[in-house]
Amino acid sequence: MERPKKKSSRSSPPTLFKEVYVLKKILQRHEAYVFIIILLFSTLITVVNPNFLTFENLFDLLKSTAFTGVLAIGVLLVLISGGIDMSFAAIATISEYVSITLCLKYGGNMLTAFVIATVIALVLGSINGFLIHTFSIPPIITTIATMNLYYGLLIVITKGRWIYSLPPYFNTFSQVRFLTLTTESGIPYGLSVVTVIWFALMALTAWMLKFTRLGRSIYAVGGDATSAARVGINVMFTQVFVYAFMGLMAAFAGIIQALLVQTVAPNSIVGKELTVIAAVVLGGASLSGGKGTVLGTFFGVMLLAIVQNGMTLMKVSAIWYDVMVGLVILISVGFSSYREKQGKNMRRIDVLESNAQPVGERV
Amino acid sequence: MKIAAQFGNLRDYMETPFLSMHKVSKHYSGVRALDEVDFSIREGEIHCLAGTNGSGKSTLVKIISGVVQPESGCTISIAGKEVSHLSSRFSKQQGIEVIYQDLSLFPNLTVAENIVISEQVSGTSRLVSWKKGRELAQQVMQKIGISIPLDVTVSELSMADQQLVAISRALTRDVRLLIMDEPTTALTRKEIESLLKVVLDLQSKGIASLFISHKLNEVMEIAQRISVLRDGKMIGCFSCKDLSATKLEFAMTGANTTYIPYHFQPDYAKTPLVEIVEGSKAGNFKNINLSIYRGEIVGLTGLLGSGRTELALSLFGLNPLEAGQVIMEGKPVQIRNVEDAMRLGIAYVPENRLSDGVALEQSIAKNLVITVLDEMLGTLNTLDDKAMRKAAQHWIDALEIKVPSMDSAAKTLSGGNQQRVVLAKWIATRPKLLILDNPTVGIDVAAKSSIHAVIKRLAEEGMSIIIISDEIAEVLNSCNRVLIMNRGRIVKSFITDGATEEEIQSFISTHAV
């Protein structure tokens, strides 16, 4: 076959340059940019306030970010499938609130709290997926509607009451650490159970996305839903699955939130939707679907968390936080989109370079 | 064709029919899509299915692939065995694969994944092995002797390579008949050649190919037979060897285009209307010298990717020159955007009138006056309805547009009449230079001739016209001069008075890359 030969992916690069080649490959990925920006920020913050780069601060950061981090995993799947979800904060609040109310009333333990929250959130998430698929309402409209519906019902039923005293096992469980260190003043700190749950969920999701048929189907549906149906992928199941999965993550996030703040306020989570979506997009997911990784999402979430943490440590007033977030998103996403645009210019023609056949066109 | 000769020894197994269908009919809500159609394709045969839009081609393909069920009374047999009915699943089991015009690829996934995805979806394992997937993809590509990097995402590939990925995907199954819908329209000549090689290679493995097309194309050079559908009826099955473009057109449309040649000798002593001097645009075209005189109709042809559309767009400000000069009526001008072009009296009628040319839901009258709304202002600077209706009526009469009423939506018109509306709306701006991109694509023969007549009349009145077209016959017979482009250069200029279609065609074939 005399097809013009392309460099086959199998032909490995010269061994001498292997490291350079691998580095180049890594640098082509969006995650690399976010990571570099994280490094730059961290360096800057550490220079101003060395307290940033301490185990105490880092463990604390990983603990307090777990809530956003878990939600981001769910959002990632929804975005990859080409959808969007605005109702996850409402679902998180409801599952948290109902689960804890039931635990207070009938007794239970950490496991029942998780199970109840999970079941409620799965149902609410599936309703989203089902509505979107069956009635073909655009996901953003559907989930804005269900966000109002879910959240509105919660407020009507609870009248917006806060829950101040959680079951005692919430407090004990939140103190569980997998690694305990103590500060100079004797306060214990370490790798919190909340962080471990977050990392376990990320690992599971990353595996599912990469190595299961379902995971690949989500990418396929996000790439082109019609083509997906043609190759035999069950598009309806995939869509319902991602919204149900989003619900599942919202349930975990809801309980994590309760563990972190030890109170339940019906209005404390709602309103965080856009920040979470922004973090996922920052991590390389595309709003038009088909793109995104768990690692990128982790970086995206961490970058926003570090910006916030760093501002506190650098004693910058918190009112600047939104400005910073806006700038970080623009710079990071803008940079990698611009590079992509550069690659896709107008169709180029292989222009004949020699003047071999000039035509005396001017008569 | 030379390559075809090498495969002459295939005759043996090309005698047995793989699929044969007898008396296939299909109605959609009372409208006849297929009427007692007979169709057959032999093992390892390269077969074309031709017909105009709405002739029933896609319905026939849908029946073959099992997506649509035919009406009772037909007999279908596959590989010698009669089958009661075809379902999507059954067709696939029998080795029938369809590659749709959109290729059904996933732009965000890698080449390897795109190739193996249908295999993975239908497999039993819920887990995905990347290693196995890559191996399978590699194997399939080796089968047809191609190599595309496995880890590149499909969105980065050229159309031709995407086409090959789609074919490779079909080959992951035990395919016996590969159906391709208009596979060559988006490819350059070079890319078509390599596609044809792959198809011949499949043939040597006993895999039949069926190509769907609405016009004569390169595939027919290597095909054995061509079946032509018109209005849901099978007109006939011809041997490709003795089917000329004219005969095929007649079979598809039931009429022949009659051309009245346009022989015109511009007054070369006068200043040309437009001149391009050493016009270049990186990656598009280079050192273009071109002069167009008043009253000329200049045909611009060449293969896809020769730079002809890009050149025309540069005159309309959509693809401005990077170097060189445009001179309009003796004065150097700058055309940086569409507004500049329109101010200079240049109009451009795009190829895809449905998406770029007509507002389908709007009334015919509104479509006609949209370009000249400035002239329709009455007192208080509001639009004067009377003036608009008068202008619309003028153009309907002038171009003999057949309309139910000027207030009906433009979508109610036939293709030919829609094209006339698009023409009228640009002529209304009284351009000095009118650029037409494939003005008669997809419209019937009768409408074609009358559009050509309109174009000629405009030229006789002093307008200069550039026609971009794939059809040599069209440019030869309606232009006084034909320019051939190749790889971004104008390589030849023919005066149509005295030139023949064969002469131009052979020039293009020998000079094309």
Describe what you observe in this structure.
The complex is a heterodimer of chains A (363) and B (513). Chain A is mainly alpha-helical. Chain A has a single domain, classed as ABC transporter involved in vitamin B12 uptake, BtuC. Helices cover 67% and strands 3% of the residues of chain A. A two-stranded antiparallel ribbon of chain A has the order 1-2. In chain A, α4 packs parallel to α9, α5 packs parallel to α7 and α10 packs across α12. In chain A, 39% of the residues are buried. The N terminus and C terminus of chain A are likely disordered. The longest helix of chain B has 16 residues. By secondary structure, chain B is α/β, with parallel strands linked by helices. Chain B has 4 domains: 151 residues, 3-Layer(aba) Sandwich (Rossmann fold), CATH 3.40.50.300; 75 residues, no CATH class; 156 residues, Rossmann fold; 74 residues, no CATH class. At the A-B interface, α10 and α11 of A face α4, α7, β12 and β20 of B.
Write the layout of secondary structure elements.
The complex is a heterodimer of chains A (363) and B (513).
Chain A: H1 18-27, H2 30-48, H3 55-64, H4 66-80, H5 88-106, H6 110-135, H7 139-158, H8 168-174, E1 177-182, E2 188-192, H9 193-211, H10 213-223, H11 225-230, H12 235-261, H13 273-282, H14 294-313, H15 321-343
Antiparallel strand pairs in A: 1-2
Chain B: H1 2-6, E1 17-28, E2 31-42, E3 46-50, H2 57-64, E4 75-78, E5 81-83, H3 88-93, E6 96-99, H4 111-122, H5 130-143, H6 159-171, E7 177-181, H7 189-204, E8 208-213, E9 225-230, E10 233-239, H8 245-253, E11 274-281, E12 285-292, E13 297-301, H9 308-315, E14 323-328, E15 331-333, H10 338-343, E16 346-349, H11 353-357, H12 364-369, H13 385-398, H14 415-427, E17 433-437, H15 445-460, E18 464-468, H16 472-478, E19 481-486, E20 489-495, H17 501-511
Parallel strand pairs in B: 3-8, 3-9, 6-7, 7-8, 13-18, 13-19, 16-17, 17-18
Antiparallel strand pairs in B: 1-2, 1-4, 4-5, 9-10, 11-12, 11-14, 14-15, 19-20
